[in-house]
Amino acid sequence: MLQPVILCGGDGTRLWPASRKALPKQFMPLGDSTLFKDTLKRALNIPGALPPLIICNETHRFQAAAQAEQAGAKPGRYTILLEPEGRNTAPAIALAALHCQQADPVLLILPSDHVMDEGAVFAEAIAQGFAAAEGGKMVTFGIIPNGPETGYGYIEVGEQLPGAARRVARFVEKPDLEQAREYVSSGKYLWNSGMFMFKASVFLQELEKHNLGMLTCVAGAFARKKVDFDFTRIGHDEFVSCLAGSIDYTIMEYTDKAAVVAFNGRWSDLGSWQKLHEAGSPDSDGNVISGDVLALDCRGCYLRSEHRKVAALGLEGLIVAETADAILVAPLERSQEVRRVVSALRNDSKKIVDENRIMYRPWGHYEALTEGNRFLVKRIIVAPGQSLSLQKHYHRAEHWVVVRGTALVFVDEQIVLIGEDQSTYIPLGKVHRLENPGKIPLEIIEIQTGSYLGEDDIERFDDKYGRHS
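and the corresponding structure tokens:
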């Protein structure tokens, strides 16, 4: 049996401002899809594989569920395990292994933020890895490099094992450019992809051998699991007490079972704007353009607009990434350094590096349009048949104007049906709910006024999605 496991952690800070903590790169739109949806489709199309197991941060649970449905995976064709907080890949994979422990399948660990060849190349690598994993090996997939790359770790390949796998001689940290050139020219090194295959029992045995404390913490958290709506939650306190650690540092660098299978196809982890440029479809001047962009006399640029018209003139080798509330301009060759920008901005304003202007919720999404002293204006979209929680606020009042669709509004004991171009007022402290009873999306403009307008000014009394805060 083959069990695909999709890891959905990571903040993708090098793709700021498009990728942020609230909407990391695996969930952000790239054309007509997202990296997560593409990964899920890849897992669903593996012949004979079990329904994918998704390991997701609690913060992104509704995004994962919504995008899974958009990718064609109905409930029952996947399972979502929720991490209370991210603890890197080793604890996440331990959750998957414990979940599958009884059946003991071969786990195929797939990060959710990769672009790669599918079809025959992917199928061949999976088959080769499966054979080695069935034999008790801990398999990693190494990408045959097409040039020196300083943004990836490397795997030095050892002697041939039975089948297509080779023994791992050693794992190497991200090198400088001169070292990377030496690795590639030697023919003995592969890029470390972050994809793995091994039996659930083998992983748990090796984790017990090399980090018993981590296994104990994760097992304690998993023992307290409970089903909540479409998700499986685990014990919060036990899991957050677990030390963070990657599978590379926790197990793969120490185990004597490490093997590598070469993947000879297109692959990228899209870890930077430069990688996004390389994975795109350039025009005749080498520009990759996304959104409403006018480019005149520009060469070798990545130009992205999400909100406004972007006009570029005479640029060469630059990133210009525009969102509703931020713009990044930098040389493509320095795209790995965007983390420095994020760190500097975090000291100034945590909100701009963590939150998007568009925030997704299980009922739809909202966009912050403008704000000032004691007021905030939002555009709210509620999907057909969905509703916000029954709630009240202690520091703000709200005015709602229906732009499209029909709103069913509950305020204390009153129920009002509001159509297009109509409005209502929710006084401070009143218990209320907004619902879309129609068959088209409900769009409203919300004007908040009050002394405090934070999202945490909310008390929920009833919520169909199981949220408590």
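(Above: one complete record from the training split.) Residues 120-134 form the longest helix (15 residues).
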